[in-house]
């Protein structure tokens, strides 16, 4: 039996496209080194697979958000690579982090003190990255605290800094003035840490036309979504196809689904497909957005249910409407950026919510051209 007929939908993940996207960024930012953000299970696409794939492309710097995520990847990354924990550590988690050799990002004076104290207790210098806040006010030391830290160098007495980093607030908008401001602030602050590698750019930052310091940290662009609003030079990575469960005729004046929220204003054909909000298809798309059948747009009719959606297939020829026929939710007619737009959100949210119930079909490993080819 084909595995994918046991699930409501098939999620295609094109590994060759991930490798290509990584390589595009690598060429773009050279001589800066290209790391990869693999937090949230590589944005829902499978962190272990993505790490293996990118290692083959030469990637050695991986970023996750939590220690728990690092735990699952250390063996794979091995001693030649590094795993950075972007959120830093919860109080009490420091020893477990040392034990696996992951590198915490120290975001606050508190995190610095906890890490340095552990170094003192162990009688060794412990590797860490330092995040400074260049203007986003989310994580990292603001400039005044960096000044304090520099004035009290003993606070890092048992820390071996291996990266100074910051994060951009508006990198998806190349016209935003804050991009230049943050660049200058970061340049000035990081100059106080000579000979320590510097990292500022996420995906959007990699596409800004200026230098990229020593290491970049792209995520979303590797996974095929747009690094800047309205412009996507990346190869698409995910496709999502669901199968038709049932098709019915609904007369003019009939209503469909929960709340009877969709009123058929003409005699209609309604198809039910096996994807719902429990699969990460946003309930916000109730009565908005569409799927495609044989290239024909079929609008979502009524509310998105937990396990299914009803779509208006009145305009789709009957020969495409048999039980088991494939319906495109993500693919050549509809990108992840399109769906995010319809759902009033960003591609990051659509990707990271991708369902655990999909049949996953990983495709196309390998074969890509080297830089400059
Ligand atoms: C998530 C994250 C990234 C990756 O951002 P993308 O926009 O997906 O490229 C980089 N740096 C930090 C600190 C992050 O939190």
Structure description:
With 373 residues, the protein is an alpha/beta fold. Helices cover 27% and strands 23% of the residues. The strands form 5 sheets. The chain has a 7-stranded parallel β-sheet with strand order 3-4-5-6-7-8-9. Strands 1, 11, 14, 17, 18 and 19 form a 6-stranded mixed β-sheet that branches. Strand 15 (290-293) and strand 16 (296-299) form a beta hairpin. It is elongated, with a radius of gyration of 24 Å. Residues 366-373 have low confidence and may be disordered. The chain binds pyridoxal-5'-phosphate. Pyridoxal-5'-phosphate binds at residues 37, 39, 86, 167, 202-204, 217-221.
The 3D shape can be described as elongated
Average predicted confidence as pLDDT? 95
SSE class: alpha/beta
Question: How much β-strand is present in the residues?
Answer: 15-25%
Bound heterogens, unique:
pyridoxal-5'-phosphate
Q: Roughly how many Å is the radius of gyration?
A: 24 Å
Structure annotation, total helices = 12
Biggest sheet, spatial arrangement of strands: 3-4-5-6-7-8-9
State the low-pLDDT regions, or none: 366-373
Number of strands: 19
Distance between the termini: 42 Å
Helix content: 25-40%
Q: Give the biggest beta sheet.
A: 7 strands, parallel
């Amino acid at each position: 039996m084909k595995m994918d007929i046991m699930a409501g939908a098939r999620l295609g993940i094109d590994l060759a496209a991930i490798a290509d996207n990584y390589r595009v960024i690598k060429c773009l930012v050279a001589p800066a080194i290209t790391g990869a953000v693999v937090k949230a299970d590589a944005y829902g696409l499978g962190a272990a697979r993505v790490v293996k794939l990118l290692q083959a492309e030469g990637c050695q710097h991986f970023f996750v958000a939590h220690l728990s995520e690092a735990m699952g990847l250390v063996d794979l990354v091995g001693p030649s690579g590094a795993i950075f924990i972007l959120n830093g550590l919860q109080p009490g988690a420091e020893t477990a982090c040392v034990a696996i050799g992951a590198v915490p990002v120290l975001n606050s004076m508190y995190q610095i003190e906890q890490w340095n104290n552990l170094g003192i207790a162990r009688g060794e210098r412990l590797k860490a990255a330092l995040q400074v806040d260049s203007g986003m006010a989310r994580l990292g030391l603001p400039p005044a605290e960096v000044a304090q830290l520099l004035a009290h160098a003993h606070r890092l007495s048992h820390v071996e800094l291996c990266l100074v980093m910051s994060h951009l607030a508006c990198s998806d908008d190349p016209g935003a003035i804050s991009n230049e401001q943050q660049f200058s602030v970061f340049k000035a602050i990081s100059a106080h840490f000579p000979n320590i590698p510097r990292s500022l750019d996420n995906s959007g930052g990699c596409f800004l036309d200026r230098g990229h310091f020593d290491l970049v940290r792209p995520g979303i662009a590797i996974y095929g979504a747009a690094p800047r609003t309205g412009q996507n030079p990346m190869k698409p990575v995910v496709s999502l196809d669901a199968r038709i469960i049932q098709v019915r005729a609904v007369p003019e004046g009939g209503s469909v689904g929960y709340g009877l929220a969709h009123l058929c204003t003409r005699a209609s054909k309604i198809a039910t497909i096996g994807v719902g909000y429990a699969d990460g298809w946003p309930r916000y798309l109730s009565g908005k957005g569409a799927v495609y059948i044989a290239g024909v747009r079929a609008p979502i009719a009524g509310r998105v249910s937990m396990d299914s959606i009803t779509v208006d297939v009145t305009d789709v020829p009957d020969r495409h409407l048999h039980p088991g026929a494939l319906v495109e939710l993500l693919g050549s007619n509809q990108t992840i950026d399109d769906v995010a737009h319809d759902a009033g959100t960003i591609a990051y949210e659509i990707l990271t919510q991708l369902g655990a119930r999909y049949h996953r079909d990983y495709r196309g490993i390998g074969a890509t051209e080297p830089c400059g080819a």
